[in-house]
Amino acid sequence: MSHICFIQGDWLNPTVWEKFERHFKACGYACSILSLPVSGEQGWHQVLHGKDARFSPLKCLVDFYAIQIAGFSTPPILIGHAMGGLIVQLLLDRGLGLAGVAIASRPPQRVSPGFHSILQILTARVERRQGMRFLRMTPAQFFCRVAYPGSRPSAAPLYEQLVGRVPQTLMITAALGVGGRLLFTQERGPLLLISAGDDRMVASSVVLANYFYQRRSLAPTDYIAFPGHGHLLIVQPGWECVADRIIEWLQQQLGWF
Q1: Can you list the alpha helix ranges (DSSP code H) found in the chain?
Q2: How far does Cα 192 stand from its chain's mean position?
Q3: DSSP state of 132
Q4: Helix (H) or strand (E) segment spanning residue 225
Q5: pLDDT tier at 71 (50, 70, 90 boundaries)?
Q6: Which terminus of the chain is more solvent-facing, meaning fewer CB atoms within 10 Å of its CB: N or C?
Q7: Phi and psi at residue 207, in whole multiples of 5°?
Q8: Tens digits of per-residue pLDDT, 199-224?
Q9: Segment 107-143, tens digit of pLDDT
């Protein structure tokens, strides 16, 4: 049985994967949601202030997930959203994972993150917890940038359920590309990059540029755009279509169900 690991991204809690997890399990896949060692600010502190805290926050985060993935008996399929999508790319670049899917992914070094992503970092509310500076988006920012094109009444419960705090240093350094360099030195698995046509956090043009950059690798690299979808395409109406296209792609690339 093939195993899928969903990787936590930025701003949003791991519960964002619950619909995908149920859907993939119903289709015969074993699933795990990889997240911080404990939830919230304490989890971020443990990962980013460990023994390797001298490295960039993004590298510390990728190392954390690499250790978890190395513990599987067989290489899993990696699926990530936003920052999680960038982590999938960096793990594949290390030769980890059977295949990878990066959804509305933040880009690696040498690909511009785009105006929307930078604006969200600069305008988010700064809070100090666990001796670190965290960013938290307001409900208005969530409705305008993340939950778009959904309606405010339908997005309000999602804000309370999904939105968390994210380390300021992680977001800034990742936007600058620090710790996000692809080396293209390892033979990696197939990669699918997915964009949302109405994404106000990670523009589809950013994901497309990311796709062209990833084509430097000799490994299979594909791109699928979903017009009319926003950044939350993994939970908003139509998410089943996104999940089914991923399953179809996996069957094509790996040759089994």
Answers
A1: 18-26, 40-48, 57-70, 83-93, 115-123, 139-141, 152-162, 168-175, 204-214, 239-254
A2: 13
A3: E
A4: strand 221-226
A5: very high
A6: N
A7: -65, -40
A8: 999 999 999 999 999 999 999 999 99
A9: 999 999 998 889 999 999 999 998 999 999 999 999 9
Of 89, 96, 59, the closest CA to residue 75 belongs to 96
First to last CA, the chain: 9
Give kind and range of the element (H or E) at residue 114.
none
Joined together, the tokens standing for residue 72 give 């599987």
Distances 229 to 81, 95, 200, 247 between C-alpha atoms, Å: 14, 31, 10, 18
How many residues are there in the chain? 257
Instruction: Kindly state the average pLDDT of the residues 87-99.
Output: 97
Domains and CATH numbers, the chain: 3-254 (3.40.50.1820)
Of 51, 75, 49, which is closest to residue 169 (Cα–Cα)? Answer: 49
What six digits make up the tokens of 203?
A: 């523009």
Quote the pLDDT of residue 244.
98
* Residue located via tokens 């699933």: 31
pLDDT confidence band for 256 (50 / 70 / 90) = low
Q: What is the rounded distance in angstroms from the CA atom of residue 251 to the CA atom of residue 257? A: 6
On whether the CB atoms of residues 149 and 3 are closer than 8 A, the answer is no
